[in-house]
């Protein structure tokens, strides 16, 4: 149930983000979700794509600083309080969330939230035990 | 003062003979060097014989860190100063009581020659500490009998207040700080009439005639250039007179030569090359033919001020890759050492120097390497802070670290271009 996320280091200068998306597009790689965390000097682009290993290789060849990061994708009811409900489940277990970002599932009424946590296995167990759906890698890549 | 150059040469020769004898007897480093070329002190007959003697370099000082080149025991040393070396360790110099007296005397002599009198109030904004600037001017000003305000660097608002309240007539600091103060004045709407300043003595970093004109216009003072380096003395090796046409070297104590930095050959007067200095009278750490790496030329012709001491040009550059940032010496190799110590196996970096207002700004661009990459901003920022902390420890000044993408710093054939100096220096 672990999803591979691409993390790409980008300097804050024009054309870098465009270049990443261009490389992916040229190689027929589809972006499922993305988020950017930025500072004044640099940003980290986080991407969920349909072919993470291939994308990793391509970006590496183009000299990008890129890594594959393990994350989980959690289904969250698309209604007020949906995310709060999921976070409330994790709260008592001291699961440290490094970051999260959301994207919409085309086929259903649910939102998907990507979580980056320290102890992935523990988080997966707690969530599934509590009836929250955690998607598998293939489910996410083929969305 | 001296009446003519012959008189100076006579003293120089006498002192040079004494010096060579002294270092040969007291400093094992020099004995070995002289023995290696079969030179004994009695072979020195004329000033021209100096060119047969070996050079001393900053590397020699580093190899003998900290006190290996001292010619006296530590008991006789009453003061230590230091400047940054090419790697982590600083270059250390020691002064005996006589050295400190001589330094004060020469500073007083040069300042008097530049127009400072015992009635002046000297606002000394050079840094006090291991750096020689602050204390060098301080002792010189006291020796001259002027009133010295040992304000040291920083806090420009307070500096302006004190200059006004104490009625400072002479300002001593780096030229960029002088310009910064002038700009601060304009910003705060302080009228120039409120200050009694008439003269400034600026040095410790390269500057240009354009910058001089700017400072003189903004502060309405005469701006005098001063030259020195801690290895030789500190400020007081040379200073301009009121003519502002070259810096008079105190050559009865510091024997200058100009060499071709590549061949080491002595060049004739008037030709540009690297300044080499032999300390004729220093006791603590006397140096033979010290390579300053500063590029200048010498002019023995009489000066309109009447002083016959030889003059040197304003320093126009360096024969090595040393940078002077806010008056502090910075070598690219120091930065490389820090990166290597932090685990970079092949550090790719660029030193970017800029002006923010009048002040120098140092940035170090470092290519992010695989092992330090994280998908978390927090961790990358912590990494930047860590590198900045290490750089501060080694350089003694703040540098901003900016992480850049791999392969984004241009590679060049042979020697990498590590420095991008964007400060204006014409």
UniProtKB/TrEMBL annotation, chain A:
Gene3D superfamilies: VC0802-like. Residues 5-82 form the ACT domain. CDD domains: ACT_Bt0572_1, ACT_Bt0572_2. InterPro entries: ACT-like_dom_sf, ACT_dom, ACT_dom_pair. This is Amino acid-binding protein. It comes from Carboxydothermus islandicus.
Automatic annotation (TrEMBL), chain B:
SUPFAM superfamilies: Acetyl-CoA synthetase-like. One of its GO terms (biological process) is phenylacetate catabolic process. The keyword Ligase applies. Residues 74-278 form the AMP-dependent synthetase/ligase domain. It comes from the Bacteria. The keyword Ligase applies. Pathway: Aromatic compound metabolism; phenylacetate degradation. Residues 327-423 form the AMP-dependent ligase C-terminal domain. Its EC number is 6.2.1.30. It catalyses: 2-phenylacetate + ATP + CoA = phenylacetyl-CoA + AMP + diphosphate. Pfam families: AMP-binding (PF00501), AMP-binding_C_2 (PF14535). Keywords: Ligase, Nucleotide-binding. One of its GO terms (molecular function) is phenylacetate-CoA ligase activity. Belongs to the phenylacetyl-CoA ligase family. Catalyzes the activation of phenylacetic acid (PA) to phenylacetyl-CoA (PA-CoA). Monomer. This is Phenylacetate-coenzyme A ligase. The lineage of its organism: Bacteria, Bacillati, Bacillota, Clostridia, Thermoanaerobacterales.
């Amino acid at each position: 149930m672990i999803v591979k996320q691409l993390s790409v280091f980008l300097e804050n200068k024009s054309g870098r983000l465009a270049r990443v998306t261009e490389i992916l597009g040229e190689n027929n790689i589809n972006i499922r979700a993305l988020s950017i965390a930025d500072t004044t000097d640099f940003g980290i682009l986080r991407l969920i794509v349909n072919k993470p290993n291939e994308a990793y290789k391509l970006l590496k060849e183009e000299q990008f600083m890129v890594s594959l990061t393990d994350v989980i994708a959690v289904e969250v009811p698309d209604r007020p309080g949906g995310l709060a409900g999921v976070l409330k489940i994790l709260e008592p277990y001291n699961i440290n969330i490094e970051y999260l970002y959301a994207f919409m599932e085309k086929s259903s009424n649910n939102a998907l939230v990507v979580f980056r946590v320290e102890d992935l296995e523990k988080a997966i167990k707690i969530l599934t035990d509590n009836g929250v759906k955690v998607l598998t890698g293939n489910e996410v890549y083929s969305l | 003062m001296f009446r003519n150059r012959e008189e100076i040469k006579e003293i120089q020769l006498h002192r040079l003979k004494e010096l060579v004898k002294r270092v040969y007897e007291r400093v094992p480093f020099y004995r070995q060097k002289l023995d290696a070329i079969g030179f004994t002190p009695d072979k020195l007959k004329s000033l021209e014989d100096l060119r047969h003697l070996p050079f001393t370099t900053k590397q020699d000082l580093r190899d003998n860190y900290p006190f290996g080149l001292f010619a006296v025991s530590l008991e006789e040393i009453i003061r230590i100063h230091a400047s940054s070396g090419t790697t982590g360790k600083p270059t250390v110099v020691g002064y005996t009581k006589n050295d400190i007296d001589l330094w004060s005397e020469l500073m007083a002599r040069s300042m008097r020659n530049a127009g400072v009198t015992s009635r002046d109030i000297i606002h000394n904004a050079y840094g006090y500490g291991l750096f020689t600037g602050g204390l060098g001017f301080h002792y010189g000003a006291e020796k001259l009998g002027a009133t010295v305000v040992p304000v040291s660097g920083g806090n420009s608002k307070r500096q302006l207040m004190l200059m006004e309240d104490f009625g400072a007539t002479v300002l001593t600091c780096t030229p960029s700080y002088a310009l910064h103060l002038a700009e601060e004045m304009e910003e705060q709407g302080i009228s120039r009439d409120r200050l009694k300043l008439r003269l400034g003595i600026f040095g410790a970093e390269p500057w240009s005639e354009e910058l001089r004109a700017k400072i003189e216009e903004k502060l309405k003072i005469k701006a005098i250039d001063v030259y020195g380096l801690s290895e030789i003395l500190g400020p007081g090796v040379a200073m301009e007179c009121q003519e502002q046409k070259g810096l008079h070297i105190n050559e009865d104590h510091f024997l200058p030569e100009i060499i071709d930095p590549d061949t080491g050959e002595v060049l004739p007067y008037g030709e540009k090359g690297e300044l080499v200095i032999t300390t004729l009278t220093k006791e603590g750490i006397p140096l033979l033919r010290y390579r300053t790496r500063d590029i200048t030329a010498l002019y023995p012709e009489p000066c309109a001020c009447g002083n016959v001491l030889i003059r040197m040009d304003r320093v126009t550059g360096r024969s090595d890759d040393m940078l002077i940032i806010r008056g502090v010496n910075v070598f690219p190799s120091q930065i490389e050492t820090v990166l290597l110590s932090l685990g970079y196996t092949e550090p790719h970096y660029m030193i970017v120097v800029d002006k923010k207002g009048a002040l120098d700004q140092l940035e170090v661009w470092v290519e992010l390497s695989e092992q330090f990459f994280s998908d978390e901003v927090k961790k990358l920022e912590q990494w930047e802070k860590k590198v900045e902390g290490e750089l501060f420890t080694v350089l003694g000044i703040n540098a901003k670290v900016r992480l850049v993408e791999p392969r984004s710093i241009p590679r060049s054939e042979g020697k990498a271009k590590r420095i991008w100096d964007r400060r204006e220096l014409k």
